[in-house]
Amino acid sequence: MTTPAVAPLSVTDVPPVPTGTDPSPDIVACVEMWRAAHLDLLGHLDLTESPGTLAAGLAQQEYEAKQLLLAREGDRVVGSCLLRRPRRESTEVARGGMSVLPGADPSVVLRALWEAARPALVADGRTTVQLWSMSRAVRPHAPDVLVPGTGVGAVEHDGYAATLLDLGFVLEQVERHSQLEVDEGLERAAGLEHEVLRHADGYDVVSWAGPAPDSLAAGLAAACSRMSTDVPMGALEVDEEAWDVDRLRYVESTLAARGMLRVTTVALEGRTGEVAAYSCLDHHPGLPEVAWQEDTLVLAEHRGHRLGTLVKIANLRALREHAAGVLRVHTWNAGENAWMLRINEALGFREASAEAAWQLTGLH
Ligand SMILES: CC(C)(COP(=O)(O)OP(=O)(O)OC[C@H]1O[C@@H](n2cnc3c(N)ncnc32)[C@H](O)[C@@H]1OP(=O)(O)O)[C@@H](O)C(=O)NCCC(=O)NCCS
């Protein structure tokens, strides 16, 4: 049984530890709090980082400056705020999330974290702040729900949401979090394949685990930059990201430092050999039954050939080959991304929870 948090709370900065050293006690305490929050909301730990992956992620600051704050009531961690400030593009934006220990008062905890985070954001010229938070899956017309600016999806209008609204954040978008049982996905893939191949004539697929082959790295990097322009983002401010082979290799090295395995499939246009589509899944051996869907994208000029389904099917098979113990895949899609949702539903993904995207503009 937890007791509600009462003011005043202390908020402290958690400094990164050098890559390769043990996570600090603060990092361990933060992950324990996240675990409690995930168990309370989701009933499982499939989406929780380990102290090791969080520590390694915090140490990687080349493309984004990262700051982790912890709120404590006495010795007890009651909240966290993790913010990333992109260094190359979106340089007026900070992105991240705030978590609250179940049973603690979100109004007290979120306000304390926000007051502590604000000065560094202002000093760094960040005028827009975007936060993502989890919610149970709710229907848009149910009582006590909030519908985002996009008009699609909904999240609970609870104490957490009410506090962010009070602080000036706007609910811009809701993403649907869905889960796939891999065995069912593979079975459905076999049934979908014939129709998909009929549309995808003239394309070949290549799959791998780990870093991209040198011959495909430039084409894959070019496709990665389209994720920042082509995915529906509602009114969230996002600058186009410039990707090249150096950036791809940097991301691959950060995944390796966190102990993650990335499984990737590309579709190549047979005539030109160009990368037309790609999809990747991430897996960590610390959670042997779980993988997380990362990017899936078909370049605009290649859409309509079912390449999204083609690369997802091939990548699911590659996942089974390289990480045979994975039973579940999690994915997040904007509610208005009908094209991606249709593909995922055909593969057997089912709604599990919702994710709110909040934005505050005009910070000074
Ligand atoms: C989602 C996506 C991968 C699907 O591409 P795809 O595999 O080419 O789509 P399909 O072949 O299944 O397309 C089915 C139909 O929808 C259309 N379509 C697909 N994506 C579309 C889009 N973004 N906008 C408009 N129409 C689209 C196709 O042209 C096709 O039309 P047709 O039946 O008249 O020929 C692609 O839209 C995309 O890359 N979007 C941007 C990246 C993205 O949102 N990724 C997911 C992030 S969570």
From TrEMBL:
It comes from Ornithinimicrobium humiphilum. Residues 1-21 are annotated as: Disordered. The lineage of its organism: Bacteria, Bacillati, Actinomycetota, Actinomycetes, Micrococcales. InterPro entries: Acyl_CoA_acyltransferase (IPR016181). It comes from the Bacteria. Residues 10-21 have a biased composition (Low complexity). This is Acetyltransferase (GNAT) family protein.
